[in-house]
From TrEMBL:
Lineage: Bacteria, Pseudomonadati, Pseudomonadota, Alphaproteobacteria, Sphingomonadales
Protein name, UniProt field: C-type cytochrome
Signal peptide segment: 1-19
Binding residue positions for heme c 1: 75, 78-79
Highest taxon of source: Bacteria
The record's account of how the chain is modified after translation: Binds 2 heme groups per subunit.
Cofactor binding description: Binds 2 heme groups.
PANTHER family: CYTOCHROME C PEROXIDASE-RELATED (PTHR30600)
Keywords, sorted A to Z: Heme, Iron, Metal-binding, Oxidoreductase, Periplasm, Signal
InterPro entries in the record: Cyt_c-like_dom (IPR009056), Cyt_c-like_dom_sf (IPR036909), Cytochrome_c_Peroxidase/MauG (IPR051395), Di-haem_cyt_c_peroxidsae (IPR004852), MauG/Cytc_peroxidase (IPR026259)
Length: 346
C-alpha cells in the first residue's frame, strides 16, 4: 500500500473517532431545514454542503473576537441576536475607530437575500460576504487585511477548533484556512431562519395573530409598500433611490460598488423582518423611528400615506407584527457556551 492511501486511511479513522465523540451529526445530504410547510429551503452552494459540524463551527467563529486584529471584535459585536442580528448604533466603528459607512443590517433569513449588503451587486454569496468585515479596508471593520496566516495560526492553536475543523471539513483533513472559515460562517448564517412572527402566523392561517390595527396596516402595506418590500422577506432585492441622488455626497450607494453614475443614491430595499428590533434605520442609520422611516419615502409614496396619522399608526402596528421573538431568543443562535465539550479531542 502506498503512503497516500495510508494517510487517507489514517484520516478516515480520525474522522470516525471524532464523529463518535460527539452527538450524531446528520450527513450533509440529510440536512434537515427547520422550516414551516410551504417554505422552500435557501440556496446552498454545491461546494459548501450543510452539516451540523460546520454550523457549530461557524457559530463559534461568529462569536469569536479572535477574528479581529486586536481581539476585540466578533461578528456578534455588530450583529446582536436580541436585535434581530443588527445593533443599536447609527454606524458602528471598526477596530481602528474608523467610522462605519453604513447601518448594521439584521441577518434574519439572510440566506435568501442576494445580492448582499445595502448596495453591492458583486456580493452574491454569504461565503464571499463573510470575508468583507474580516479582511476589508473600506471601511476597516475587523482589521485582518493580509493576516490570513495569523488567523489560521490563532485558530489552530486551540485544540477545540482543531477538532471542530476536522469534523466540519473531513475532506481536507480539517485544514484551518480562510476559505474554511468563510464556509463555516456561511453555513451558520444559513440557519438563521425566522418564520415565527405574528405576520407569518397570520399567513399560515392564524386569524388572531394580528391586532385589528395591524390588520388595517396589513392592507395599507399591501397597497403602498409591498411593491418594493415584496415577498417572503419583504424585499424585492432591487436597488431604489428614495432620496435625491444628487444629495448623496458621503455615500454614493450602489455607485460606490459599480462606479456607474446612474447607481448613485440607490440602495437594496431592506428586509423588514424584525424591523422593530433593528433600529436606527436607513443605510446611514440617520432615521430614529419607523414613523420617520415611512416619512422619508416622500419621493415614492403618495401623500395620503405620509400625512394621515391614523394610517401611519396602522402600518407601524403591522411592522411590529414582523418581530419574531423566538428568533431573537433562540438558544441555537446564541453565544455557543460549552460547544467544545461536544468536540474537544484533547
Ligand atoms: C463593525 C461592525 C460589523 C462587524 C464586526 C460585522 N458586520 Fe456584518 N455588517 C455590518 C454592516 C455595517 C453591514 C452593511 C454593510 C454595507 O451595506 O456596506 C453588514 C452587513 C452584513 C451582511 C449582509 C446582510 C444583508 O442583508 O445583505 C452579512 C451577511 C454580514 N454583515 C455578516 C457578518 C459576519 C459573518 C461578520 C463576521 C465575520 C460580520 N458581519 C461582522 C457591520 C458589521
Ligand atoms: C420604491 C420602493 C419602496 C417602497 C414603495 C417602499 N419602500 Fe421602504 N424602503 C425602500 C428602500 C430602498 C429603503 C432603504 C432606503 C435607504 O436606506 O436609503 C427603504 C427603507 C424602509 C424602512 C427602513 C428599514 C431599515 O432597516 O432601515 C422602513 C421601515 C420602510 N422602508 C418601510 C416602508 C413602508 C411601511 C412602506 C409603505 C408605506 C415602504 N417602505 C414603501 C424601498 C421602498
Amino acid at each position: 500500500m502506498n503512503r497516500a492511501s495510508l494517510i487517507l486511511i489514517a484520516l478516515a479513522a480520525g474522522v470516525v473517532a471524532t464523529a463518535a465523540a460527539r452527538p450524531a451529526a446528520p450527513q450533509p445530504s440529510a440536512w434537515q431545514w427547520d422550516l414551516p410547510e410551504g417554505i422552500a429551503p435557501p440556496p446552498v452552494p454545491a461546494d459548501n454542503p450543510m452539516s451540523q459540524a460546520k454550523v457549530d463551527l461557524g457559530r463559534r467563529l461568529f462569536y469569536d473576537a479572535d477574528l479581529s486584529i486586536d481581539g476585540t471584535m466578533a461578528c456578534s459585536n455588530c450583529h446582536n441576536q436580541r436585535r434581530g442580528f443588527a445593533d443599536s448604533t447609527r454606524t458602528r466603528p471598526g477596530v481602528h475607530g474608523d467610522a462605519g459607512r453604513r447601518n448594521v443590517q439584521g441577518l434574519a433569513n439572510v440566506s435568501y437575500l442576494s445580492p448582499l449588503t445595502w448596495g453591492d451587486t458583486r456580493l452574491t454569496t454569504l461565503e464571499q460576504q463573510a470575508m468583507v468585515p474580516v479582511f476589508g479596508d473600506d471601511p476597516v471593520e475587523m482589521g485582518m487585511l493580509g493576516q490570513d496566516a495569523e488567523l489560521a495560526r490563532r485558530l489552530s492553536a486551540d485544540g477545540c477548533y482543531r477538532a471542530m475543523f476536522l469534523a466540519a471539513f473531513p475532506e481536507t483533513g480539517g485544514r484551518v484556512d480562510t476559505p474554511a472559515v468563510a464556509k463555516a460562517l456561511a453555513a451558520f448564517q444559513r440557519t438563521l431562519l425566522s418564520f415565527d412572527s405574528p405576520v407569518d402566523r397570520r399567513q399560515r392561517g392564524d386569524a388572531g395573530a394580528l391586532t385589528a390595527e395591524a390588520k388595517r396596516g396589513e392592507a395599507l402595506f399591501g397597497a403602498h409598500c409591498a411593491s418594493c418590500h415584496a415577498g417572503q422577506d419583504f424585499t424585492d432585492r432591487q436597488f431604489h433611490a428614495l432620496e435625491d441622488p444628487a444629495a448623496a455626497m458621503t455615500d454614493t450607494g450602489l455607485a460606490h460598488a459599480t462606479g456607474q453614475a446612474s447607481d448613485r443614491g440607490r440602495y437594496r430595499t431592506p428586509s423588514l423582518r424584525n424591523v422593530a428590533l433593528t433600529g436606527p434605520y436607513w443605510h446611514d442609520g440617520s432615521v430614529e423611528s419607523m414613523g420617520e422611516a415611512i416619512a422619508r419615502h416622500a419621493r415614492v409614496l403618495p401623500g395620503n400615506v405620509l400625512t394621515q396619522e391614523r394610517e401611519r399608526q396602522d402600518i407601524i402596528a403591522f411592522l411590529h407584527g414582523l418581530t419574531d421573538q423566538r428568533f431573537a431568543t433562540d438558544p441555537r443562535f446564541a453565544y455557543p457556551d460549552g460547544i467544545c465539550l461536544a468536540y474537544r479531542a484533547d
